[in-house]
């Protein structure tokens, strides 16, 4: 008997059986990137983690609406209510329109997600596309008595909210302690309480991104967009909300307050948070010089890397650790992951080519059949234990041993029968490709392949094997490449 899916709920601080609010439908919201810069590896880990969760829920037969937003306004440089808008600041530095910055880095984000084979979400809404809805939610929160206007800005009233509800229950923060540790900020005199946060911010004259509102010209607070877009597309209460653990406070805490303040309902049943990345045991940060972009990892151009690592190697590496655990990058760990990934891919190639062949005189070995069934069930047990991809990969390697044994003849097809073979094949294919999202990568670049063909061409010419020479010429010509026999050697060019 395989246990049902259980997940660790950051809100209750314990593992719980997953019971959707309205099965078989599942609503999942994940905080997307603020598109003012290239997406970093910490973001990539979070989105790959939720890609796995999305894939597994689909595999289990749930009808999942996956919403992941794009933050294109309101996220200030201080991550609270102070500083410039991150996108507006970058627009000034680059001498671009803010939406040019947004488009540039949104395109880049999508390219990175494609490279790492992450499925697109069902809906990808933007903050600027939902200004009217944000204004309407602010009006509702004010009507409910949980927000107030001050000098053209609107602030969420933590004190008032805490009279009935509990601000800080997700992160475990205590309001009195938070107030005691709050530093003085610009505009703090506008607030009734230093912990109150802006849900609408009055725009100064130099602020680029600004909209009309009942409270004057301004822009929405960073936290508000997620409350608005999650509840618009998933309902006032939905199943899963995810993001990096760095968002737990204040972002997710404020989301809960806003949604409860507007509707009186708990917005999310299960909160899931991914952990951070470290490099050689140290926290990844730009100041330490150990922060690198996905492109630097793939090209191997960062000084901390011995060599480049392919996107699927990196994805496999990330899946070797539970999403809620810290993940440490090192050349040794990445090299080991590369070997493990290639082993899985060799198994994938083998099992795709294998077809069941009945064998006369070979009796069914029930023990071998039971082993395959047990290993397949173990893959589900691991994923049902809070999406434990690390354990799942271990069980897949055990299944791979059976595949290799079939290929070498150590295990006979007749011993496991058609049913056992089908179970082995479908489990391996489903978990490697459909659930873990791993795929085969070309081991060498096309130009390297051309180099190999040029060597074969040269050898054929020297051996006066003109049939082979013509064959290689024809192969390359079909790919739009022309060979040139020159005095200094053989060269190639794109066919014009």
Structural topology:
Layout: E1 6-9, E2 14-17, E3 25-30, H1 41-59, E4 63-68, H2 86-94, H3 98-115, H4 131-143, E5 147-150, E6 153-156, H5 158-164, H6 175-180, E7 197-202, E8 218-220, H7 222-234, E9 238-244, H8 248-263, E10 268-274, E11 277-279, E12 282-283, H9 294-299, H10 311-319, E13 327-329, H11 331-353, H12 366-384, H13 389-408, H14 413-435, H15 446-462, H16 466-478, E14 481-486, E15 489-494
Parallel strand pairs: 3-4, 3-9, 9-10, 11-13
Antiparallel strand pairs: 1-2, 5-6, 6-7, 7-8, 11-12, 14-15
Helix pairs in contact: 2-3, 4-7, 4-8, 7-8, 10-11, 11-13, 11-14, 12-13, 12-14, 13-14, 15-16
Brief sketch in words of this structure:
The chain has 496 residues and is an alpha/beta fold.
Quickly list its features.
alpha/beta, four-stranded antiparallel sheet
